[in-house]
């Protein structure tokens, strides 16, 4: 049943996942640099407690801390973070470092929309006053302490002290996050003995396994403080870019969003390759244009939801609008509706009003003058995308048997669950608990299976690209897994 070599691919997947031997050399270089930095650095960390937030009634019912950690050469990069102690038992509960995707999206997204303890009141139109802040009953901080870090530099409130330090990329982000965590732990000795997990979603799937491996190497090299690294968590993670692109079309067909005829024509004319398309293949290009017409009005993060404009249109959306204007069908001439009550992006709009308020930034102890207007997601940071596949790091980490939870919202079109299942299958570890439904309050919340490398895969029924689409189910899943219980 498992005759395939571990970490190898079957014929269908062979062309999708590439090994990058240079990654190993890059990691060794980063580790050497890290040793130098830790031997010379003064470990500058600044933090403050936050007891009240504008827009929230009363004292916060949990302990919130914000601060900056200096990393990189001369600590020219200042990474901002929000830290919330576990609401259950911070002395014994795990410590989770959470990375937000993008790259360029602030950890505020996770804090307010995904797994953190706060939300905005979104059922009334914005009237110019400060948005109202509410509690999220499904916060993962009910079972874990969580550090939400604005990374890479240029994201959220993180900033650089000079132009050279603004330049960043995948490997540099990994290196700086590693420094961040060890420095943060030195400044918070009460958490030195805490079991540590690294979590993230979306684009973080490319860098997170490398960060976990670098932390593991750092422990082996004796870098202090030692980190009690127990495992990692990935939500709808980008892992193999070509694989995710190529399996998006089978996913869309399976969800009845394109016809059988178009699907067969795409397979025939494009030969299953939709990522790197030969521009001279006119038949494939023609099929893909028709495919775009079928799906381009969808909310690809959760295909059942309404598609509304972003609070600030992204470059991708502006490009899409120009493409629609070339169409001859009236339904494609209309722009996406603006974010209003009932649209998910309306809540994103509220974050612009709230976070850019002077009183809010004062309450969060933000250093003034280091960034311009705060943006939830900034896609203009000088960032180099160096990683096309993190699969080989999963091969390495599987051999080290860290605990791992990988979950997929099954209505996410950005990173379809078919692709995540494919690279997990390619690791070729035996199944120890086969496919079965997992339940929340007597209802099927998704499906799960576990493998002998201590990896658990779970789908979230009706879920989207991040945990914000199904908070109750995602919290139940996380709570069971982090407590060592079966889903």
UniProtKB/TrEMBL annotation:
<keyword id="KW-1133">Transmembrane helix</keyword>
<keyword id="KW-0325">Glycoprotein</keyword>
<dbReference type="GO" id="GO:0006508">
    <property type="term" value="P:proteolysis"/>
</dbReference>
<keyword id="KW-0964">Secreted</keyword>
<dbReference type="GO" id="GO:0019748">
    <property type="term" value="P:secondary metabolic process"/>
</dbReference>
<dbReference type="Pfam" id="PF00450">
    <property type="entry name" value="Peptidase_S10"/>
</dbReference>
<dbReference type="GO" id="GO:0016752">
    <property type="term" value="F:sinapoyltransferase activity"/>
</dbReference>
<keyword id="KW-0812">Transmembrane</keyword>
<keyword id="KW-0732">Signal</keyword>
<keyword id="KW-0472">Membrane</keyword>
<feature type="transmembrane region" description="Helical">
    <location>
        <begin position="21"/>
        <end position="39"/>
    </location>
</feature>
<dbReference type="GO" id="GO:0004185">
    <property type="term" value="F:serine-type carboxypeptidase activity"/>
</dbReference>
<comment type="similarity">
    <text>Belongs to the peptidase S10 family.</text>
</comment>
<dbReference type="InterPro" id="IPR001563">
    <property type="entry name" value="Peptidase_S10"/>
</dbReference>
<protein>
    <submittedName>
        <fullName>Serine carboxypeptidase-like 7</fullName>
    </submittedName>
</protein>
<dbReference type="InterPro" id="IPR029058">
    <property type="entry name" value="AB_hydrolase_fold"/>
</dbReference>
């Amino acid at each position: 049943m498992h005759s395939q070599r571990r970490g190898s691919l079957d014929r269908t997947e062979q062309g999708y996942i590439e090994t990058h031997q240079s990654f190993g050399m890059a990691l060794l270089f980063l580790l050497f640099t890290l040793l130098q930095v830790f031997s010379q650095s003064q470990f500058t960390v600044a933090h403050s407690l936050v007891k009240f937030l504008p827009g929230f009634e009363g004292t916060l019912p949990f302990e919130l801390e914000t601060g900056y950690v200096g990393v990189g050469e001369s600590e020219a990069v200042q990474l901002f973070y929000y830290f919330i102690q576990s609401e259950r038992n911070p002395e014994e509960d795990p410590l989770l470092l959470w990375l937000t995707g993008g790259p360029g999206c602030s950890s505020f997204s996770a804090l307010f929309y995904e797994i953190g303890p706060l939300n905005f009141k979104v059922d009334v139109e914005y009237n110019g006053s400060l948005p109202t802040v509410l509690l999220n009953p499904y916060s993962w901080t009910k079972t874990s302490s969580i550090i939400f870090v604005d990374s890479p530099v240029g994201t959220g409130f993180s900033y650089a002290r000079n132009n050279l330090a603004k330049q960043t990329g995948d490997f540099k982000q990994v290196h700086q996050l590693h420094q961040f965590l060890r420095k943060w732990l030195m400044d918070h000795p009460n958490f030195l003995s805490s079991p540590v997990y690294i979590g993230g979603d979306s684009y973080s799937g490319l860098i997170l396994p490398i960060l976990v491996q670098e932390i593991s190497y750092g422990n082996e090299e004796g870098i202090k403080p030692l980190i009690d690294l127990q495992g990692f968590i990935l939500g709808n993670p980008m892992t193999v870019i070509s694989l995710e692109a190529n399996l998006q079309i089978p996913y869309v067909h399976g969800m009845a969003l394109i016809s059988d005829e178009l699907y067969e024509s795409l397979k025939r004319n494009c030969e299953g390759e939709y990522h790197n398309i030969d521009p001279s293949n006119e038949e494939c290009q023609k099929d893909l244009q028709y495919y775009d017409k079928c799906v381009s009005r969808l909310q690809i993060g959760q295909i059942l939801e309404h598609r509304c404009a972003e609070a600030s249109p992204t470059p991708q959306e502006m490009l899409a609008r120009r493409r629609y204007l070339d169409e001859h069908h009236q339904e494609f001439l209309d722009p996406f509706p603006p974010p209003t009550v009932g649209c998910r992006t309306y809540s994103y709009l509220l974050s612009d009003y709230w976070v850019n308020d002077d009183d809010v930034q004062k309450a969060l102890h933000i250093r003034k003058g280091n960034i311009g207007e705060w943006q939830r997601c900034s896609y203009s940071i000088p960032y180099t995308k160096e990683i096309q596949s993190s699969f080989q790091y999963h091969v390495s980490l599987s051999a080290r048997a860290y605990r791992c939870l990988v979950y997929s919202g099954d209505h996410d079109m950005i990173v379809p669950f078919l692709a995540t299942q494919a690279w997990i299958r390619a690791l070729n570890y035996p199944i120890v608990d086969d496919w079965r439904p997992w339940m929340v309050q007597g209802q099927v919340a998704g499906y799960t299976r576990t493998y002998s490398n201590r990896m658990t895969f779970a789908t979230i029924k009706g879920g989207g690209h991040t945990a914000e689409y199904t908070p109750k189910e995602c919290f139940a899943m996380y709570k069971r897994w982090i407590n060592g219980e079966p889903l």
